[in-house]
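Section 5.1 Outputs to date
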Amino acid sequence: GQLTCEPLVCPPLPASCNRHLPKGQCCPICQNETTVEEKDQDETSGCQMAGQYFPPSSNWHPYLPPHGFDVCTTCTCHANDLRVTCSRTTCPTLNCDERVAVKPDKKACCKVCPTSLLDPNAPPQPPREIQGEEGVTESPEAINEEILAQGGCKYPVGGPYHNGQQWHPRLYSHGEVKCVKCRCKDGKVKCERKRCTKWSCNDECCMAQCKRRRRNIRRHH
């Protein structure tokens, strides 16, 4: 019985996009440079979808209440016949557990594995040196080989990790991902997202799940 309001988040537009804000709309859309300016347009010269007008050659993400814009679907108003077609983005196959995968940002369509977001230009980790019993300094390569020989795990950033060691993966755009924990076990890395209960809504890792749960409850009542 409660009414909640949330700000509308507009979908991302490519940098090369000729932005156009249709009359009465909240979010801009892409418009071909050859499209006639809005002041010279009649609504019969464009496309209609869900009661909204879109200029010829424009592209947009459809709005699907109560979820918002479907950023995985792009619709186009064809200038030659004013026909609307929509195509859905096919996300690439993930090389990790889907529960661990994250979206690079809130407006992204496809999830990616944490390791695929590592900054290729990040400076390498400083070499570690360990003094042996006889005072001989072991090379980083020898140390890493010893860790792996004892059941350790390779990992793009910060590795290798010792057998049984746990850590939070790092993303170059977000830093450490506190909501995901990885563990090395007998040479294999397994990452899991923090499990949330209905009592943990104040936890920053669980807020998004709580919001989705509340929306589902409202839709079914």
